[in-house]
Amino acid sequence: MGSCGAVGSVRARYLVFFQYLGTDFNGVAAVRGNHRAVGVQNFLEEAAKRLNSVEPVRFTISSRTDAGVHALSNAAHLDIQRRPGRPPFSPEIVTKALNTHLKHPAIRYLDIAAMQEAAQHLLGTHDFSAFQSAGSPVPHAVRTLRRVSVSPGPASLFVLPQESRRLQFWTLEFESQSFLYRQVRRMTAVLVAVGLGILAPTQVKVILESQDPLGPTS
Which of 104, 23, 26, 106 is nearest to 70 (CA)? Predict the structure, then answer.
């Protein structure tokens, strides 16, 4: 904690821990000047405006996540500079203020039965070209998927008690002698799209049979 800016004002630094569902975010880092994309950091800094800091609050985040990725415990620090003569906020006040102004979007539940139905189209020996990165150097993309399962996963110790009834965890398991580059990640993404209702289970078979790589960033 130290003096800064206007005479008599004090800037205090806080360490915060936060969790988020990244489905609707372009990763955790702030996105500047692009109104079609938003990062978790934008969301946090918008909430921090209510703290009326003399200088705009900026979050310095310890680790980054990609678009659509969730986090159970990320960390950041922020500086809050109050007007002259006003003492620093206590950590409890900062926590309460941020949580009050952070809106909790409705959590969408996955259609597990649809995911399990879709997974059956992936079982067996197939050309999995559609589930590898474009331009992959492997000579052929034929692989045998022996087992795929979608089952309930254990709750995380990082989930707050008040959130435990709102969050569900699922485990996706794939068994094969070998996988193509990013094959598991992309099969998971497609099955989640089915669970969210974006794709129908039968469309997974269509994607598989197309043998058309999903692209370098999917």
Answer: 23
Q: Do domains 2-101 and 112-210 have the same CATH topology?
A: yes
Catalytic positions, written as ranges: 66
Q: Where are the beta strands (DSSP E) in the chain?
A: 2-3, 10-20, 59-61, 71-81, 124-127, 142-152, 170-176
Record: fold of 2-101: Alpha-Beta Plaits (3.30.70)
Which runs of consecutive H residues, i.e. helices, occur in the chain? 40-48, 91-101, 112-119, 183-195, 201-210
pTM above 0.85, yes or no: no
Using CA atoms, how far residue 63 sits from 1, 13, 73, 156, in Å, is: 24, 18, 10, 19
Residue 193 in tokens: 């799209």
- Give the Cα separation of 5 and 211 in Å (integer): 60
Q: Which two tokens stand for residue 58?
A: 């900026």
What's the CATH fold of domain 112-210? Answer: Alpha-Beta Plaits (3.30.70)
Give the span between the Cα atoms of 153 and 166, in whole angstroms: 14
Tens digit of each residue's pLDDT (9 = 90 or more) over 14-60: 999 988 888 778 888 888 776 667 889 988 998 899 888 999 999 99
Orientation of helix 201-210 relative to helix 112-119, angle to 10°: 30
Summarised one tens digit per residue, pLDDT across range 105-138 is: 557 678 999 999 999 999 999 999 999 887 677 7
Q: 51 in helix, strand or coil?
A: helix
Could you tell me the residue ranges of all domains in the chain? 2-101, 112-210
